[in-house]
Amino acid sequence: MSLLNNMSYIFKTKIYYEDTDAGGVVYYANYLRYFERARTEFLEYLGIRVAEIAKQGIKFVVVKAEIEYISPALLGDILEIETEITELKKVSMIFDYKVFREKDKKLITKGMTKLACVDNNLRPLKIPLEIYHKIYTNKNK
Q1: 10 Å Cβ neighbour count for 4?
Q2: How many separate domains does the chain show?
Q3: Structural domain that includes position 55
Q4: How far apart (Å, rounded) are the C-alpha atoms in residues 63 and 52?
C-alpha cells in the first residue's frame, strides 16, 4: 500500500541493444538502473531536486534492494516503471516498483529499494522537514 494514498509515478524507458544480453533479454542488473531513474524522476516530480539537496550535504543512499523477476523484457520493448513511496521514517524511506511492458501491460519485474539519508561523511541524517512536506503535500497531484 502506498504511503501517499496510492499515488504513484510512471516512468517510461525503451529497451535498447545495450540493455540486453546476448539473447536480446534485458540484463538482470539493469532493472536497478531503471529503478534509480524512476525514483529520481518521481522525486523531481514531487519538487525534490536530488542534485540541489546533494549540494546542501544531504544525500540518499540505497541500503537495501530487492527484485523479483517475473517475465523477460526484450529488445525494443517500452517499459513503464510504476514507483511509490511506501514508507517514510526519520532517516529512511522505501520505494516500491512495478515494471510493466507498455504494449500488453504484463508485469515484468517488481522490487523495492530502501534509502537512508546521510550527510557528506555518510553518517545518518534526519530527512529534512522540507522533504517530508514536499512528499506529503503532493499526495493529491
Answers
A1: 19
A2: 1
A3: 9-137
A4: 21
Asked, for residue 3, whether it belongs to a domain, the answer is: no
Task: Output the pTM of the full model.
Answer: 0.91
Residues whose CB is less than 8 angstroms from the CB of residue 23 and which lie 6 or more positions away in sequence, other chains included: none
CB 128 within 8 A of CB 58: yes
Q: How far is CA 82 from the centre of its chain?
A: 8
CATH code at 78?
3.10.129.10
Quick one: residue 114, left, alpha or beta (phi over 0 = left, psi -120 to 50 = alpha)?
beta
The catalytic residue positions are 21
- As a whole number, the mean pLDDT across the chain is 93
Distance CA 125, CA 8 (A): 26
**Residue that is written with C-alpha cell 540493455 in the block:** 19
Task: Determine what percent of the chain is predicted with pLDDT higher than 70.
Answer: 93
Q: Is residue 55 part of a domain?
A: yes
Is residue 38 situated within a structural domain? Answer: yes
Q: Decide if 112 is inside a domain.
A: yes
